[in-house]
Specification:
It is built from 13 helices and 13 strands. It has about 350 residues and is an alpha/beta fold.
Length: about 350
């Protein structure tokens, strides 16, 4: 029996039964059919995540099934629903704000951030990523984003002396509707160097938090740069975060530096939600045998110091590296994404907090 086309129809099942559905969804800018989120998402959930009305999408899918062709879609039906001007009188509410931190570079913080975001989206949660690694941003590349961010006037802001209102950045949207703001999206040249000193970097991070037209989000993930200086301090001291996820790898040197980051978080009296050990081992594809390429795991030691659980031990995986390099990280259909998201949710649920609003 063919799949019924209705708002509660699962996207992957629909595309499997009716391949032309993928082309119809792409016309609406709803690219979930090509990413790992569609395994869990209905047409209505996908439409809502992208700010679209579901009725025109269902109607176009029904018409495509009958005619065998992608129908003409009105431009109005393809545009995301805009917030009314009165909605700008308040700032977006974030239920949870989580920083991903290490202290050491090259351990995979951005990859962990991306996988957490993908896993949370598979649970039909609204997610945003603030790329706080101003001088070495990599989040846009992971998600295949290259177009510069749009700037628009804030309707709620009073006019300045020149009669103009304060500008606001509009976050980019990934294929699965993850909102993203990054320094690499301030220019159309992704290899442009941001030669900024510490105070400017700190100011930009605050602007990314406060002067962006974020949607109301279930999770805002903040990808921090390595180290324990200006940028991490700005996030930990100035932003209302729920806690920190520490990323480490199985190497004594990396473990020592990550422990410094854990001590900083404790000094600032912020909770550590969990520890993720990246590059923990390699699974041989022919035998399935595990090899500890970088040595034995130190995740439990870091977790003991952090007084937090181990959220996951991530293996070395060439597929993840390939999808990351190609900007297709959302296409990764790996149980690890679900495990990371589930472990993070368990940690944040133990830290009850009212939704916070930007001011």
């Amino acid at each position: 029996m063919p799949v019924t086309i209705a708002p509660d129809t699962n996207i992957r099942q629909l595309v499997g039964d009716l391949p032309i559905a993928q082309d119809v969804l792409s016309v609406f800018g709803l690219h979930c059919a090509g990413c790992g989120v569609n395994k869990y998402e209905t047409i209505e959930q996908g439409a809502r995540a992208h700010g679209l009305r579901v009725e025109p999408i269902v109607a176009a899918l029904v018409q495509a099934r009958l005619s065998g062709r992608v129908p003409t879609v009105n431009n109005e039906d393809r545009r995301p629903i805009m917030r009314p001007p009165s909605a700008f009188a308040r700032r977006a509410a974030f239920k949870h704000v989580v920083a991903i931190m290490s202290g050491k570079g090259g351990v995979g913080k951005s990859l962990v951030t991306a996988l957490l975001a993908a896993g949370l989206r598979r649970r039909n949660l609204s997610v945003g990523i603030l790329d706080a690694d101003i001088t070495g941003p990599s989040i846009p590349r992971l998600f295949g984003l290259r177009k510069p961010l749009v700037i628009q006037e804030d309707p709620a802001a009073p006019p300045g002396p020149d009669g103009k209102k304060r500008p606001q950045l509009v976050p980019a949207r990934s294929r699965s509707a993850i909102e993203i703001v990054s320094a690499n999206l301030l220019t159309d040249q992704e290899d442009t160097a941001m030669v900024w000193r510490g105070p400017i970097v700190s100011g930009v991070i605050r602007q990314f938090y406060e002067q962006v037209t974020w949607s109301d989000l279930d999770f805002l993930l903040i990808d921090l740069p390595p180290g324990t200086s200006d940028a991490p301090l700005t996030v930990l001291q100035s932003l209302a975060i729920d806690g920190v996820v520490l990323v480490t790898m199985p190497q004594m040197l990396a473990t020592m530096i990550v422990r410094k980051a854990a001590n900083l978080v404790h000094q600032l009296k912020k909770p550590i939600l969990g520890v993720v050990e990246n590059m923990s081992y390699f699974v041989a594809p022919d035998t399935g045998q595990h090899y500890e390429v970088f040595g034995p795991s130190y995740a439990d030691r870091v977790a003991d110091l952090a007084q937090a659980p181990v959220l996951a031990r991530m293996p070395i995986d060439p597929l993840k590296a390939q999808l990351a390099d190609e900007g297709r990280i959302e296409e990764l259909d790996d149980p690890l994404c679900d495990e990371l998201a589930a472990a993070l949710l368990r940690s944040v649920e133990s830290l009850p907090k009212e939704p916070i609003s930007l001011i």
